[in-house]
Amino acid sequence: MISLSSIRKTFQTKDGPVTAVDGIDLKIDEGEIYGIIGYSGAGKSTLIRMLNMLERPTEGDVVVAGRTLSKLRHKELRKARQEIGMIFQHFNLLWSRTVRENIAFPLEIAGVKKAERDKRVNELIELVGLEGRGESYPSQLSGGQKQRVGIARALANNPKVLLCDEATSALDPKTTDSILDLLVDINEKLNLTIILITHEMHVIRKICHQVAVMEAGRIVEQGPVREVFRKPKENMTKEFVKQITEPEETVDAITQMLIDHPEGQIVQLTFVGEEAERPLITQLIRQFDVEVNIVQGKITKIQEGSYGTLFVALNGEQAEIKKAITFIQNKEVEVEVIVHD
Ligand SMILES: Nc1ncnc2c1ncn2[C@@H]1O[C@H](COP(=O)(O)OP(=O)(O)OP(=O)(O)O)[C@@H](O)[C@H]1O
């Protein structure tokens, strides 16, 4: 559905050239929810804005739904853009227009007749769960409701692709979750391809199938979310994964555990899918002469199954601990030894 090859974007500034995107190749399949995560300044906004030519790449080609956007002229580009909807962190609604009028706006621009427009707006209002709010003005809506208007407006012309630029960053956690649920619902109902950028791993965990990690204008790691969670390779990725696996109490608990069991070894076990449900600890205790203390554990839902982390302290003879760790590894559970004694 989307393919980027050797994309580069350099801005000319008073202080000299700034390369925001520095040679990115990317392929995104139809129907996929693809997340791009990175800290501020990594180049995410610039990258996503090149997917609909809000920014033109300095080098490289952008192909969306079979069209090479980077080569299109004004009129053709306007048409191609109807295939690509976009939502924004601060919603970008028209404040003097009602909900209905905001949603109808792109239909007016596309020259859709009044009767058809009204019908389509009704469908969209229902799709995003804004029944009864059609005549309200944006200032009368909550943040979540405003983003629902943004989503309805972005979907008005039946796009194939939806771009989400930090679409939940201005919302509280509960509202964020309801908007993310809506995006999954739309993805499934319409087979819409969704690309989102975020700095929150929670967003990736909750809805994405694939993830790319961006740093300094490049993609440093990418793959299916469950694989990246199970085996993050780059330090940057590990930091993001920690955002949801390692709450502050874990660090405190580990420190305390080390004081209490100076002879022990603390390991982090990472399970994905069915592995998360197997009675691994029972097997460990039965088959090896080790004591197992659970420090902290958490199982989280990801878009394709469940994902769990468990911090345990293993006490016993070094050789026996080693055997136990090998046993766990053979169960296809990732094991990271946090502290060597
Ligand atoms: N129009 C512009 N002119 C000059 N420099 C720009 C422009 N847009 C972005 N940049 C620079 O490009 C780099 C990447 O910015 P970008 O906004 O794409 O990053 P980001 O990952 O989206 O961060 P944020 O979430 O803070 O927006 C930054 O160094 C930024 O200052």
From TrEMBL:
Keyword check for Protein transport: no
Which positions fall inside the ABC transporter domain? 2-241
Has keyword ATP-binding? yes
Give GO terms: molecular function aspect only: ATP binding
InterPro entries, alphabetized: AAA+_ATPase (IPR003593), ABC_transporter-like_ATP-bd (IPR003439), ABC_transporter-like_CS (IPR017871), ACT-like_dom_sf (IPR045865), MetN_ABC (IPR041701), MetN_ABC_transporter-like (IPR050086), NIL_domain (IPR018449), P-loop_NTPase (IPR027417)
Which Pfam families does the UniProt record give?
A: ABC_tran, NIL
Cite the entry's keywords alphabetically: Amino-acid transport, ATP-binding, Cell membrane, Membrane, Nucleotide-binding, Translocase, Transport
Please name the PANTHER family in this protein's record.
AMINO ACID IMPORT ATP-BINDING PROTEIN, METHIONINE IMPORT ATP-BINDING PROTEIN METN 2
| Protein name, as recorded | Methionine ABC transporter ATP-binding protein
- Taxonomy of the source species: Bacteria, Bacillati, Bacillota, Bacilli, Bacillales
